[in-house]
Amino acid sequence: MIRIGAIVFAVLLSIGSAQAAKVVASGRPLQLYHAYATNPDCSSAGAVVVRVAQPPAHGRVSIRQTGVFPAFPASNPRSACNRRRVPGVEAVYVSERGYTGPDIVVLQALFPAGRGVNVTLPIHVM
Asked: Which of 31, 74, 79, 91 is the most buried (most CB within 10 A)?
């Protein structure tokens, strides 16, 4: 019985870590990702660097500094910043014209406090 419980737990973990593909019309822009480092007064805590670690096979990704709407939980003192744009960076994907099917992008985000993450973003182009 313990073995079955461990298998169910492992399956639940794998389901929880699965990412649904973002869907976009062929040739249209799709905001893939945005990141920010924000102080409690909504000013920038430093620049976030976003790089393409694995480019898409059937499109291109552009990265630009821009204002983004953060998504802090209500319990975070920065949640008041959710109502306005803060300095950030965004990554936008555009497929090759006429391409339909799957694509994937891996981004690397480096935050000013020393944290870094790799973000895998599956895309379904229709």
From this structure: 91
CA Rg value for the chain: 18
Residue 90 lies in a domain: yes
Decide if 1 is inside a domain.
Answer: no
Taking only the tens place, the pLDDT of each residue in 89-114 is 999 999 999 999 999 999 999 999 99
| Cβ-contact 120, 55 below 8 angstroms | no
What is the CATH number for 48?
2.60.40
Based on the structure, what is the number of domains in the chain? 1
Give the least confident one: 11-15, 26-30, 106-110.
11-15
88, part of any domain: yes
Distance separating alpha carbons of residues 118 and 108, to the nearest angstrom: 4
User: What is the Cα–Cα distance from 89 to 109, expressed in whole angstroms?
Assistant: 10
Q: Examine residue 84 and state whether it is found in any structural domain, yes or no.
A: yes
For residue 54, what are the CA distances in angstroms to 14, 23, 65, 69, 102? 23, 19, 20, 26, 15
Domain residue limits at 111: 20-125
